[in-house]
Amino acid sequence: MTDAPTGDGAVAAVAKAAGAATGVSRAGVIGISVGVLAAGAAAGVAIERLTVGRATRRRARAELDASAPYGSLRGRPRTVAAPDGTELYVELDGTGWAEPETPDSADGADRPDSAESSDGPERPGGGPAGGGAEPLTVVFCHGYCLNQDSWHFQRAALREGMRLVFWDQRSHGRSERSRSFLAGEPAGIDQLGGDLKAVIDAVAPTGPLVLVGHSMGGMTVMALADQYPELFRERVAGVALIGTLAGDWNSVSLGLPAVGAKLFKRVAPGVVRLLGRQVDLVEATRRLGSDVTSLFYRRFSFGSRDVDPGVVRFAEQLLDATPIDVVAEFYPVFGVHEKFEALAALLGLPTLVLAGTKDLLTPSAHSEVMAARLPGAELVLADGAGHLVMLERPEQVDRELALLLRRAADHAGAAPLPAAVLDLARERPAEQAADPA
């Protein structure tokens, strides 16, 4: 296998392909697709030569697929209608929920005993604490091209005694394809903020909330703060912004040299839009180019080579499950995302800002900027971690979230946290915290 083009050379190849996009042939679309992947995977470095045979790699992937439990945890399923009618898939997890008023007799196979299926309303309050104070409800918002299963480790670590809400963003995972987009309306982060409000209203209409967002999910939380600042004054007890940014996406170099980054940012929207119109062909190309795709995913997902191969494969599965037309649907929204002013709604709230120091998609410098605007926020930089820090450093992220939950419960006067979460909320090593000032 020959070496892939590197740095500016790969980007130039994409630009050349994009320039001929008007009358592109099937071979041209394949070239563009592989060119986009190669440009990303070669961001500033050469793609290393593969050292094992293709058949061996396929067998290894099959074994990982068969043995890895990642993404297998399930909660009680619900469907929530977004403002435009799009059906959003939601799961209620954790043992802190009260029993549903209308139990569902549907088969509960492969679901934990603590989260049997229910279509009925939840009784407010409940949980192990009982009494007057309501427990925290923690709502997790996943990132671009992922789904709620990207929170696998956090779901496993925090479900004992907690009320957890996981949902798939519109067009992602098990949620319905965006009805408004299919009707011709462009996707937008503000729309995702409205979706999050619909989820909260439907499944957690009362009690204190902790909102956890990764990447695009963090932007979703900011959009909610922009649209509903009163919700943050009255009910939000804590916020976690993980691997995300409040704006200035166009300054992100993606690990490319400055000239290459500028060129790539200029041609990428048109290329992605073109690929989104060739779904069947591009999906076939992704399968044929799985080796290049895997290197691309790893380059932009993780900062270290020392990651469990099962976790790496799980990340590949999450990303592969997002069709190219959904990739194209949301790619343009990042360049216009600007929510610095919305951060004001978080002032005074327990807030965690966490990022990997080797994150190429939402660099940690952007987290430092957000933390500087939020005096009192906890800024934690995971040394050497990449964009999918919650998969790469699950123990660290779990601990930081538990610490945030402890602060949020104190802030809101919520019901006491379960012992399992308090045990997890041990103090971090001093070198893992960063001063936002």
Task: Walk me through what this model shows.
By secondary structure, this protein is of the alpha/beta class. 43% of the residues lie in helices and 11% in strands. The chain is built from 18 helices and nine strands. The protein has helices at residues 7-19, 26-41, 54-67, 152-158, 179-182, 189-203, 216-227, 229-234, 258-276, 279-288, 290-301, 309-320, 324-330, 333-336, 364-372, 389-392, 394-412, 419-424, and strands spanning 76-81, 87-93, 137-141, 163-167, 209-214, 236-242, 351-356, 378-382, 433-434. A nine-stranded mixed β-sheet has the order 1-2-4-3-5-6-7-8-9, with helices on both faces. It is globular, with a radius of gyration of 22 Å.
Category by helix and strand content: alpha/beta
Name of the CATH class of the largest domain:
Alpha Beta
Sheet with most strands: 9 strands, mixed
Task: Identify the CATH homologous superfamily of the largest domain.
Answer: Alpha/Beta hydrolase fold, catalytic domain
- Which H/E pattern describes the elements? HHHEEEHEHHEHHEHHHHHHEHEHHHE
The number of distinct β-strands equals 9
Query: Helix proportion of residues, in percent?
Result: 40-55%
Determine the strand fraction and express it as a percent band. Answer: 5-15%
Mean pLDDT: 79
- Total domain count: 2
Query: What value does the Rg take, in angstroms?
Result: 22 Å
User: Biggest sheet: strands side by side, in what order?
Assistant: 1-2-4-3-5-6-7-8-9
